[in-house]
Design a protein that fits this description.
Number of helices: 9
Strand order of the largest sheet: 5-4-3-6-7-9-8
Mean pLDDT: 97
Low-confidence stretches: none
CATH architecture: 3-Layer(aba) Sandwich
Number of strands: 9
Structural class: alpha/beta
Shape: globular
Radius of gyration: 18 Å
Helix content: 40-55%
CATH topology: Rossmann fold
CATH superfamily: Vaccinia Virus protein VP39
CATH class: Alpha Beta
Largest sheet: 7 strands, mixed
Order of helices and strands: HHEEHEHEHEHEHEHEHE
Oligomer: single chain
């Protein structure tokens, strides 16, 4: 076996072992739960914009984008714009004509200004409105026309009903071999006390929506290898790969 294949095989075996290590997986979840109350994920920026993400998930998204080389990334949920700037910068490095579409029901003026003034704004299009409204989806669908490699990121309203509707609308736009990534599926695994002022919680969250969606969509499968190697992730069962 040549050195590259040998390294990749060793990595594969290591990831499989990590996935089976219940103590390590619990340790990762405990870290996530314990740091959530201190807003740990709010500590990071990408090229000047708050990204509100775990570094582990950022690395995973970089790996996916490098492998898939999407021409279009559609993300629901904009917030401060850090993630769409991150994706745009990776598309810039790829050197294609890639575009990131960021959808949010309320893009606040100060965030819009800083996103539109950012050096990566040339690869960003903002769409304001509900991600599940017919008007917004039609606009995004028109943008997607003619683009062969499309990746989806769902990170807006985290209720079961809303995420399931997003999956029904946007997941079919995912190219074969690409990913539809559903963030904050970890809500299902966290104490409800963390979400006392939110409409989502145990039994009503992105992970339950994923499970429901997959019952009737065999063209997608959960890429368990990603969460197994990360150990700390907000998206367990949320990295959905389109296989057909």
């Amino acid at each position: 076996m040549d050195p590259i294949n040998q390294f990749n095989e060793e990595k594969k075996q290591n990831i499989e072992a990590l996935g089976k290590n219940e103590d390590l997986n619990q340790l990762g979840l405990d870290f996530l739960i314990d740091t959530a109350k201190d807003k740990y994920t709010y500590n990071f920026t990408w090229m000047g914009r708050p990204i509100i993400a775990f570094p582990q998930d950022m690395v995973a998204m970089q790996e996916i984008i490098w492998d898939v080389k999407p021409e279009l990334i559609i993300e629901t949920g904009v917030a401060h714009g850090g993630s769409i700037v991150y994706y745009a910068s990776l598309l810039e490095l790829l050197g294609n004509n890639g575009l990131v579409v960021g959808i949010d029901i309320d893009i606040r003026a100060h965030n819009r200004k800083l996103i539109e003034e950012h050096p990566m704004s040339k690869r960003i299009k903002l769409v304001e409105g509900s991600s599940i409204s017919e008007k917004v989806f039609d606009e995004v669908k028109n943008i997607a026309k003619g683009r062969n490699k499309i990746m989806i990121c769902l990170d807006s309203n985290h209720t079961h009903e809303h995420v399931l509707e997003e999956l029904k609308l946007y997941a079919p736009l995912t190219s074969v071999g690409s990913y539809c990534v559903v963030f904050d599926t970890v809500v299902e695994d966290m104490p409800d006390s963390h979400f006392e002022n939110r409409p989502w919680g145990h039994g009503n969250n992105p992970k339950t929506a994923v499970w429901e969606f997959l019952k009737t969509h065999e063209e997608f499968e959960i890429d368990k290898g990603i969460q197994d190697k990360l150990l700390i992730t907000v998206a367990p069962d949320g990295y959905l790969k389109r296989i057909r």
